[in-house]
Amino acid sequence: MLRVLRALGLAAVFAALLSAPAAWGDGSTQGLELAIAASDYWFEPAWPTVHAGTTVRWTNHDAESHTVTEEWKRFDAEIWPGGSFTFTFAEPGVYFYYCEPHEWMIGEITVVANDGSKASKTLT
């Protein structure tokens, strides 16, 4: 009986892991929210892929402020230490962003259609 309960417990954990959004590893997600950390003067994950409709939350874990500035200013926010900024990506495309005071802090979010297909155009 103990073996059966243990097997059921492991199966439940495995099923929960499989049903969770894939926001780990390569930064891909089919969920509705993705967290990006500004930490040690880097964005992590820096190159995620998300589905249209996903809200991305950038949180500043450093001791000084950062910006999240999209290259064409579709979003541009200053994030104070401990603060965060969110943006919902409605349209498929590629969104390059950076931190204005720290030019080496860069990232790019690829937004795919909800059917999983790649964007038909690159937003520039």
Task: Domain count, please report it.
Answer: 1
Question: What is the number of helices?
Answer: 1
Please tally the β strands and state the result: 9
Largest sheet: 5 strands, mixed
Shape: globular
The CATH topology name reads: Immunoglobulin-like
H/E element sequence: HEEEEEEEEE
Helix/strand/pairing class, anyone? mainly beta
Outline the low-pLDDT stretches: 1-26, 119-124
Structure in words:
The chain is mostly beta strands and about 120 residues long. The protein has a single domain, classed as Immunoglobulin-like (Sandwich). Helices cover about 15% and strands about 40% of the residues. The chain is built from 1 helix and 9 strands. It has one helix at about 1-20; strands at about 35-40, 40-45, 50, 55-60, 65-70, 75-80, 85-90, 95-100, 105-110. The chain has a 5-stranded mixed beta sheet with strand order 3-9-8-5-6, with no helix packed on it. The protein has a 4-stranded mixed beta sheet with strand order 2-1-4-7, with no helix packed on it. β1 (about 35-40) and β2 form a beta hairpin. The N and C termini lie far apart (about 60 Å).
How is this structure best summarized?
With 124 residues, the chain is mainly beta.
Task: Fill in the keyword field for this structure.
4-stranded mixed beta sheet, disordered C terminus, disordered N terminus, 5-stranded mixed beta sheet, 39% strand, 1 helix, 15% helix
